[in-house]
Amino acid sequence: MTRARMPRPHEVAAAKRDPRLLRAVREQQGDDAWRTRGACQTVDPETFFPAPSEPADAAVALCRTCDVQGACLAWALEVGDCHGVWGATTPRERRAMLVAWRSDVPNPGLTGPTPEHRMGPAVCLPLLPIQRVGRTDKRDPVGAAS
């Protein structure tokens, strides 16, 4: 598995102007039942979670026709989900959008929750395994016989 990289400043700037993100900002406080109306309801869920070496074109194309695309993307950004296709975006696109989403406001003309009301990490990156490091001091632990 490869480690996701932090989005570069020009990618974040482009994400702030992305119409999909602007739609998500507008639709984030909308109907909570958006999932029941998604075009994805009739498709195998694995379509939206392709392997890293497989294209996500089919899922993105289906999402582009969906009426709840903005609410779907807003949900994924709010919870910090960086796996699969949500709101016609790939994980790589969403990483840059997530930085923009958690920054001040992507578009000053649009209202939404302020950054301090949003929860979750600033950027989603895969967790790395914890490496156990051996003890460097050779003293006996407390209570051990000498």
From TrEMBL:
The primary site where this protein sits is: cytoplasm
Q: How is it modified after translation?
A: The Fe-S cluster can be nitrosylated by nitric oxide (NO). Upon Fe-S cluster removal intramolecular disulfide bonds are formed.
Tell me which cofactor or cofactors this protein depends on: [4Fe-4S] cluster
Q: What is this protein called?
A: Transcriptional regulator WhiB
The entry's family comment says: Belongs to the WhiB family.
User: In terms of domain of life, where is this protein from?
Assistant: Bacteria
Provide the Gene Ontology terms for cellular component: cytoplasm
Question: Keywords, A to Z?
Answer: 4Fe-4S, Cytoplasm, Disulfide bond, DNA-binding, Iron, Iron-sulfur, Metal-binding, Transcription, Transcription regulation
This protein's encoding gene: whiB
Gene Ontology MF terms: 4 iron, 4 sulfur cluster binding; dinitrosyl-iron complex binding; DNA binding; metal ion binding; protein-disulfide reductase [NAD(P)H] activity
Residues of the 4Fe-4S Wbl-type domain: 39-96
Subcellular compartments:
Cytoplasm
Q: Which InterPro entries match?
A: 4FE4S_WBL (IPR034768), Whib (IPR003482)
A Gene Ontology biological process in which this protein takes part is:
negative regulation of DNA-templated transcription
Q: What does this protein do?
A: Acts as a transcriptional regulator. Probably redox-responsive. The apo- but not holo-form probably binds DNA.
Annotated cofactor note:
Binds 1 [4Fe-4S] cluster per subunit. Following nitrosylation of the [4Fe-4S] cluster binds 1 [4Fe-8(NO)] cluster per subunit.
What taxonomic classification does the UniProt entry list for its organism?
Bacteria, Bacillati, Actinomycetota, Actinomycetes, Micromonosporales
Residues that, per the record, bind [4Fe-4S] cluster: 40, 63, 66, 72
